[in-house]
Design a protein that fits this description.
alpha+beta, 17 helices
Length: 434
Amino acid sequence: MGSARVSKGKKPRSTAATAPPPAHYSPETQELRALLRRVPDGFQATLNALAARPVDSRERSLIELAKGMGKEILPLFRAAGLGKSQELALSALKVLPVFGTRAAGELLHEVYEKITDPERRQKVRESALAFQAKGIQITIGTDTTPASPSDLARLTLRETSISAPDGVGSRSIAARFQDHYGVWHAILVMWNDRAGVKDGFMRPFSRREWEERVANMAQRGLRHAVCPPDYARWSIEQARALNEITRFPVGQSLKDWDRLMGPPPAGYVLPVVPVVDDEDLEEDSPAVHPAELLFLEELVSWGFEVADVAPHVRPWLREMMRLRADVDGAAQEGGPEMRQFLAPAVNQLLDETQLNLFRGRLEDLARFYHFRGEAGPASAAQRVVNLISGGTPAGEIDFFAILMERTLYQAAELMRRGSDLEELRYRPLRRYQY
């Protein structure tokens, strides 16, 4: 069997002490970087684009990526070296010494152990000499006996996180790993409480790219909360159980999750969200009344189906006109009198199935804020859960009355525009809906 070894000697001072120079990318390489960021297929699309380019253009871009992105781009070189395209593999193996790092040398070692193609193995030997010239000793065997496939790069779980439920009950769960080269990877799973797991994938996800993603999502009101790994595992199991009921196909969406994360431990106990009295809250987490929850950024998309509230729009508008004309000023639009008027409609909309959906969303919302250390919103969400669990009719819960008013305003405006409200209904058993 051929052997390959990376010397464990001291790393050259120049590669450890100096930071990568500022990146200067050609337009062709900038296109590849933009393609690489595309989720979820950007990684494979970038490989395909590189394979389709002339060799000079391809290798120029690979060099620019290696110099500009450093170890973050190593997974692309690994996939290229082991991939189907012979020309791309040879280019990637040829450019690897440009990194000048031990991690790149170990990757060359790993690729050598997995390939049997003589041309690729020869290219590995040539690159090993280039690494040695940079002070990184790599010993490559000279025979061509096929090597047994080695295990995948070792991955260490670094973080798990969740999103808050959105307006239609969809959530995302992420697990972030670091391999033994120091490169970051992420598994992302999307699920909905009326369908189950809808999509999932794994790909290299550099720390810088992850931070950009988190920032972009936060700007859209889609923050994440770091959570215990077992809670993430439990959430996936709840979603998978829904797929069994809805028959929505999981396909390969959980392949990487099952391989690297697995199920929660037997007897796993969910974290308890404490309801903290307002006077006991810290200054950085002010009190939130349950009725104020809907004005937080995570809940701006929450509402009922506009098609379901359509029959209540005209009675609601008439009641609003009456309240506005009330000369004694005792009744106010949006006040207790309006909420009392809407209570029967809320109770009608929230049958047992719908109420259980909202209870589950509010439970997950309370845990989301709990994991973020935001005790005010967490307590407010848990108070609504406790009201539902205690048997309080939905029409008597301020949270649902305000949610009803919000949806009525939306439905009235859409009806004024002539929109087809039924066409706007969310259909959970579609994989994607825009």
